[in-house]
Amino acid sequence: MPSAEISLPDDVDIEIRQLVEEGEFINRDQAVEELLSLGVSAYTTDDSPNQTTDEDLFTQVVDDQQDPAIRNESDDEHTL
């Protein structure tokens, strides 16, 4: 298994230590490995442009709106 040396901010180191002390992980190595794996699997890169710009969102909302004053032909009939 490849190994890597990393420097962590003090607050992250404290959180990892607390997780180990609380029994969430067997030891520090397991905690770092699992947390890093979870982070990598949660981070997804997608080459397709799924993000829409604010202008696209505005246009979509405006296009989806319907004028409440517009009546359908079938709605104009009165029933008694």
> pLDDT under 50 segments (min length 5)?
none
How far the N terminus sits from the C terminus, by CA atoms, comes to 80 Å
The mean pLDDT is: 77
> How large is the radius of gyration?
27 Å
Q: Regarding quaternary structure, how should these chains be classified? A: single chain
H/E order of the elements? Answer: HHH
Main β sheet profile: none
Pfam families: DUF7120
Region (Disordered): 43-80
Biased composition (Basic and acidic residues): 70-80
Organism: Haloplanus rallus
Keywords:
80 residues, mainly alpha, elongated, DUF7120, CopG family transcriptional regulator
In short:
This protein has 80 residues and is mostly helical. The chain is built from three helices and no strands. It has helices at residues 10-21, 28-42, 54-64.
Structural overview:
This protein is mainly α and 80 residues long. The chain has a domain at 10-42. It is 48% helix and 0% strand. It has three helices and no strands. The termini are far apart. The model has no long low-confidence stretch (mean pLDDT 77). Residues 43-52 have a biased composition (Polar residues). Residues 43-80 are annotated as: Disordered. It comes from Haloplanus rallus. Residues 70-80 have a biased composition (Basic and acidic residues).
Task: Show the helix and strand layout.
Blueprint: H1 10-21, H2 28-42, H3 54-64
Biased composition (Polar residues): 43-52
Protein name: CopG family transcriptional regulator
Organism: Haloplanus rallus
